[in-house]
Amino acid sequence: MIALEVINLSKEYSGRLVLKNVTFNVREGEFFVIVGPNGSGKTTLLRILDLLEDPTSGKVFFDGEEVDYSKDRVALRRKIGMVFQQTLLFDMSVYDNVAYPLKIRGALTKVDIEQRVMRMLEDVELLGFEQKNALTLSGGEAQRVALAQALVTEPSFLLLDEPTANLDPKNVSIVEGVLSRLNRENKTTIIMTTHNMFQVERLAQRVAILNEGEIKTIGAFRDVFGYQSPLAW
Ligand SMILES: Nc1ncnc2c1ncn2[C@@H]1O[C@H](COP(=O)(O)OP(=O)(O)OP(=O)(O)O)[C@@H](O)[C@H]1O
Ligand SMILES: [Mg+2]
From atom 18 of ligand 1, which residue's Cα is the shortest distance away? Predict the structure, then answer.
């Protein structure tokens, strides 16, 4: 079943096309990765999928329902979690940062919120960090808090913009472990960008190459990159 459908999506900034007729589908529960050089349009595409920006033209469907970018998108955004290329945490404790998306929804009791937050912190290996101010964390720790914050609401769609770009191997492995488990056990549909070819090989069910705003190829890692070791890239 198709979970996300993008049809002929284009985006123009001051007369310059940065996304050109982008078309692809992502299946429910698929781990879909987008690679492409700096400036190829990866972040712009994810921001449109996260409903933060409007496309100039084209259509986006989540679970078969077309997004109306002219309307209020609060309900639809609740299905989507996003981890941004630049981690953006609030000037408060790690616990409060992760609990925040649950608190603003207002649907859970304090005890339920605590259970979920602590489970997420355990997943990202940050138990014991609850009371630390999030702004004092290292880059790797902050990125893991951002991941916990995106996942605590159990979104059906997870968008990740270079989530491990500045992390050391240990942090990369923690983040990849969380993502693999989530994809396998919760069937979360994941759309991630990265420059790390090893990561593409480890995680992606399919990979798309974006270049100068256009999708050049989509397929399984082996079909797209051949049998060469990623070291060659
Ligand atoms: N708000 C904006 N206004 C004008 N131009 C923009 C805006 N946002 C992005 N662009 C331009 O759109 C193009 C694509 O940018 P984008 O950030 O999507 O690339 P990217 O693939 O994410 O690059 P990177 O790998 O460096 O993160 C770039 O040329 C960028 O300068
Ligand atoms: Mg980017």
Answer: 41
Q: Is the CB of 194 under 6 A from ligand 1?
A: no
Mean pLDDT, the chain, integer: 94
Instruction: Round to whole Å and give the CA distance between 198 and 231.
Output: 8
Ligand at shortest distance from the CA of 36: 1
pTM summary value: 0.94
Q: Which ligand is nearest to the CA of 41?
A: 1
Whether residue 95 is contained in a domain is answered as no
Residue 135 maps to a domain: no
Q: 74 or 68: which carries more pLDDT confidence?
A: 68
For residue 208, give its domain range: 2-88+155-232
